[in-house]
Amino acid sequence: MEKGYDVHGTIRRSSVDYRERIAHLEGHPNFHLHYADLGDSMSILQVVKKVRPDEIYNLAAQSHVQVSFDSPEFTADVDATGVLRILEAVRQCDLTDTCRIYQASTSELYGKVEQVPQDEHTPFHPYSPYAVAKLYGYWIVKEYREAYDMFCCSGILFNHESERRGETFVTRKITLAAARIAQGKQDKLYLGNLSSLRDWGYAKDYVECMWLILQNDKPEDFVIATGEQHSVREFCQLAFRYAGIELRFEGEGENEKGIDVKTGKVLVEVSPDFYRPTDVVNLWGNPAKAKRELGWNPQKTTFEQLVKLMVEADMAKVAVERAGERVRTNLEEYLEKGIVK
Ligand code: G4F
C-alpha cells in the first residue's frame, strides 16, 4: 500500500475473529477484502474475475510443518492444488499476459539436505507432507511459465520471522515465553529439537524481495535467505538475554535443559511432543542470485536485530496484558465493594 497499490486480500469465513494482524489496515480506501479459500476453485475464480489483478502474491498455505503430519490431505489440497487453482483462474480470465504471480515456495523443499548451503541448483529432497505439497506448487508454477508463457515465479524463502509470527513457530514461541518468564507470567518453556539449524531472516525484508521478483525483467525463481545459520538453542539463549535472563544449557537430547545462570532455576526443557517424525535440521541459504540480479540486501536486518525486535515487541505485549489484568482486578474489587456499579 505504501507503494500506491490497491491491495485486495482474501480471507476465509470463520466464526471467530482472526484478523488481529491486519486490523490496522481495515478501513483504508486502498485495502479490500474478499471471502475466498484456496480449497474452493470457484471462490478463487470469482475474485480474480472481479479484481483482474496485475500482481498476485500467493502467501496462503497450511504453513505449519508439524501440523502437516496430522493433516496431510488438507495440506496437499491447499498447498499443492491451491496453487494450480490460482494459475488456472488467471488463465481462464485471460490475464496471462498482464498478471504476474508470486508463489511462496520454501526452503523446506531441500528437506533432508543434499548440499550446504542451498541455492537455486541444490536438489530437492522434501521431508514432510508440507514440503511434498509445496514441491508440487513449485513445479506447477514452472510448468505454467513454460507452457503458457506466464510471468509466474517462486521465491524459495528460508524462515522469515517477525513480531507478527504465529505463536506456535519456534522463534515466536521462544520470544513470547522469554517475555512471559521474565515478567513472572510463565514458569517454563518446552521445546523440541534444540540443535536444529535455520537461516532466519526478517519477514519485512523478505516481502520487499518478493516484490522485486515480480518487478524483474524475466520470470525466474530465487532463493531468499540471509546466508547465516543458527541453532534453536542459540536463538533461545539470545532471546532470553534480551529479556534480561542469562541461560546456560546442560545435558543432551531429551535431557538437555536451559538453566537461569543467576537463580539456578530450569527455564527450558525438551519435550518429545515437539519432535517431528522427520525433521529438517540443516537449512542454510545462499542468496547470491537475489543479491546480484535484484540488488536485494540479505543482511539488512541482522540475526541479533531480529531477535531483539521480536523480544522487545513481546516484552511490551506481555506488559500491556499485565496492566490489563491489574485494571480488571481493581475493577473486580471495586465491583465487589460496591464502589462502582
Ligand atoms: O519454527 P518452525 O516450526 O519452522 P519450520 O518448520 O522451519 O517451517 C517454517 O519455515 C519454512 C521455511 O523454511 C516455511 F516453509 C514454513 O511454512 C514455516 O514458516 O521450526 C523450526 C525448527 C524445526 O526444526 C523444529 O523441529 O525448530 C524446531 N523446533 C524445536 N522446538 C520447534 C520446536 N519448532 C516448533 N514449531 N516448536 C517447538 O517447540
Plain-language structure description:
This protein has 341 residues and is an alpha/beta fold. Helix content is 40%, strand content 16%. The chain is built from 9 helices and 14 strands. The protein has helices at 41-51, 65-70, 72-92, 129-148, 170-182, 203-215, 232-242, 288-294, 303-337; strands at 7-11, 31-35, 55-58, 100-106, 152-157, 160-161, 189-191, 197-198, 201-202, 222-224, 230-231, 247-250, 257-260, 266-270. A hairpin with a 5-residue loop joins β13 (257-260) and β14. It is globular and about 65 Å long. Bound molecules: ligand G4F. Ligand G4F is lined by residues 63, 65-66, 106-108, 158-159, 168-171, 173, 191-193, 196, 198, 232, 274, 276, 279-280, 283.
Bound ligand species: ligand G4F
- Average pLDDT taken over every residue: 96
SSE-based structural type = alpha/beta
Number of helices: 9
Element string (H = helix, E = strand) = EEHEHHEHEEHEEEHEEHEEEHH
Features of the shown structure:
single chain; 341 residues; alpha/beta; 4-stranded parallel beta sheet; 4-stranded mixed beta sheet; 9 helices; 14 strands; 40% helix; 16% strand; globular; binds ligand G4F
